[in-house]
Design goal:
By secondary structure, the protein is an all-alpha fold. The protein has helices spanning 3-16, 36-46, 50-61, 96-108, 110-113, 127-134, 140-154; strands at residues 85-86, 90-91. The protein is globular, with a radius of gyration of 15 Å. It starts with a helix and ends with a helix.
């Protein structure tokens, strides 16, 4: 899939499904179970699509049930948290709110920090540009698109 085809696919996904800002109940698991309203609240604060963020959480920590979610880091934010780091430099946070907020704020900053790398906006339409910066490997963006579409089908 070319970058242009990826952008067209993401644009189609976004236009087919207008985001209401509401996550389907039960989409979050494990350490985030029942916290859909927290994700929605923080996404509203940072003006980012909660379905996009939830798709990232889904990829990074199985919707909050694995990986660094236990350390209140459901977006696998790789920098010090308010309680330090663990593993290969992933943040450890005192609360899920703190970890989510740091992860979301970091993601939102990509449009400014990485505009020289083609990131003009942080949303599903630009996930192909965000992917190589956010995660090692080249399959991440496709996985985020797939989960985004699956979550949107439940809205």
């Amino acid at each position: 899939i070319t970058q242009k085809e990826g952008e067209e696919e993401a644009s189609k996904l976004k236009s087919e499904h207008s985001t209401t800002g509401k996550l389907p109940k039960g989409v979050l698991k494990g350490y985030l179970e029942g916290q859909e309203s927290l994700v929605e609240e923080l996404c509203a604060k940072y003006n980012i699509d909660p379905i996009f963020v939830t798709a990232i959480i889904g990829i990074e920590t199985g919707y909050g049930s694995e990986g660094y979610a236990e350390q209140n880091n459901p977006m696998n934010y790789r920098a010090a948290g308010d309680k330090g780091t663990i593993g290969s430099g992933f943040g450890v946070f005192s609360t899920m709110r703190a970890g989510l907020e740091k992860g979301i704020a970091n993601l939102v900053s990509y449009a400014e920090r990485f505009k020289n790398r083609g990131v003009t906006s942080v949303d599903i339409e630009h996930v192909d540009q965000i992917g190589p910066i956010y995660c090692e490997g080249n399959l991440w963006a496709g996985k985020v698109k797939k989960l985004y579409n699956e979550i949107m089908a439940k809205v």
